[in-house]
Amino acid sequence: MRKSGFTLLELILVIAIIVVLAGAMLPMFNITRQEAKEAKAKADLDNIKTAAMMFKGDTNSWPVTGSVGADLVANNSGRAGWDGPYLTEWAKDPGNVSYALTDCGTGGLALCANSTGTGSTISVLVTSNKTNP
Question: Going from the N-terminus, what domains does the chain have, and what CATH number goes with each?
Answer without folding.
Answer: 38-127 (3.30.700)
